Amino acid sequence: MGTVIAKKGDVPTGGCISIDGPDGKEVALFNVGGEIFALDNTCPHAGGPLGEGSLEATIVTCPWHGWSFDVKTGECQNNPDAPAKCVKISVKGEDVILE
Ligand code: FES
Question: Is domain 3-98 annotated with CATH 1.10.560.10?
């Protein structure tokens, strides 16, 4: 059983937020056209908060040094060896659930 970490309505369409999940884990949530995706909030470059970046379509740009990541796959567009970590979530009704 997962843990409800946010409400879908907390994440603006076309935008992102970062939240404190269980066990001190920070999670970045992204709303791409009404579909929610999640990455570890910690940017693999130097630890910037990905959920405070800017989202364009499925690509988030880190607010610290501008590396960009695909929120669906974690793929890094600047360094293929440094993907962001995908976080497994599900959405049930309004609940965003960390699996
Ligand atoms: S910490 Fe994210 S680009 Fe540097």
Answer: no
